[in-house]
Design goal:
19 strands; globular; 20% helix; 7-stranded antiparallel sheet; alpha+beta
Length: 315
């Protein structure tokens, strides 16, 4: 039997802090020194988690390769499992490069420590990685990996968003959400949308002046959508949730049409009426340009992403 192959996708170290040439000792502002010390500790904890995971993998009968996520842009193929070490952002990036045949295990390398957050609550935000979709930490990584390799644990299928611009499908699927907005998202945008079923409209046409349109999956409903006033959906739901972002008209702000669901057998069709715009996919790093008159079709018909989820999300 061929040896199993695994890709270890790593969050880079340089996302935590700007290195100081003289270290932290020369900083006289006590609060700034505390913040930089916190960031330095986050970097160390992340490095330790990477080393820990690599030590575990070196003892297993598998072939594996470590890659930093900023060094990987090609589709991931010819592996049996992807393990991401970082947080939800690293898992999201893996999701952009994987089809529905390769499962993903997320390792939260730097979990938030409640005591630390409480200690510094009056000084700065000491939160670390939420890791909402990450089933593993260094505490349970080896046991969970063994269960996966032995077939005792199976992944869940998470819905992703399929985006079509002028009837052409984009190559990247959204695991969390998309935002359709002006290149400067604070500016007013003009667009319309309607919900369709079997190619026929099943909702009124809604004309909007707002700062954009956000559409999320069930997995993404606990992120920006929730912060904007949306609701958390069951993680395995195939529906999408949408919300018009900051509608201009007071009447529109209270309309039930500004926030709702696109069912799994439906799609949303939006038309863009500004000179320029972007479809942002899972944050600000991945986006495509749109222009006046473009039609954007949104549905949950993308291939699912297989993810080993924390038990509290599934049961």
């Amino acid at each position: 039997m061929a040896r199993r192959k695994l890709l270890l996708l790593l969050k880079p170290f340089d996302v935590y802090t700007v290195r100081q040439s003289n270290g932290i000792s020369h900083i006289t502002n006590p609060l700034m020194a505390q913040i930089l010390q916190h960031l330095e500790n986050r970097c160390k904890v992340h490095k330790d988690a990477i080393n820990f995971c690599q030590d575990i993998l070196s003892k297993k009968p598998i072939e594996w390769e470590p890659v930093f996520r900023n060094n990987l842009s090609r589709p991931i193929r010819n592996v049996d499992l992807v393990v991401t070490v970082g947080g939800d952002g690293t898992l999201l990036q893996a999701g952009h490069l994987i089809d529905d045949s390769i499962p993903v295990l997320g390792v939260n390398s730097d979990p938030t420590q409640v005591e630390e957050v409480d200690m510094f609550s009056n000084e700065f935000d000491a939160s670390r990685s939420k890791g909402y979709l990450c089933a593993a930490t260094v505490n349970n990584f080896e046991q969970l990996l063994d269960n996966i390799l032995e077939g005792k644990t199976v992944p869940s299928n998470l819905s992703r968003i399929l985006i079509r611009v002028n009837s052409k499908s984009l190559p990247t699927f959204a695991l969390n959400d998309i935002l359709i907005a002006h290149p400067c998202p604070a500016m007013v945008s003009r667009f319309s949308f309607k919900i369709k079923s079997d190619g026929m409209p099943c909702s009124p046409l809604v004309n909007c002046r707002s700062s954009g349109l956000r559409v999320s999956t069930a997995a993404g409903s606990s992120a920006a959508m929730l912060s904007a006033g949306g609701f958390i959906m069951p993680i395995l739901s195939h529906d999408l949730q949408y919300m018009v972002r900051e509608p201009i008209s007071p009447a529109a702000a209270t309309s039930s049409l500004m926030h709702g669901l696109v069912k799994s057998d439906q799609s949303m069709e939006a038309m863009w009426f500004c000179k320029e715009g972007f479809v942002y996919i899972d944050g600000s790093h991945v986006f495509v340009s749109i222009q006046n008159g473009d039609v954007i079709e949104i549905s949950s018909k993308a291939p699912a992403l297989k993810v080993f989820l924390p038990p509290n999300l599934v049961y």
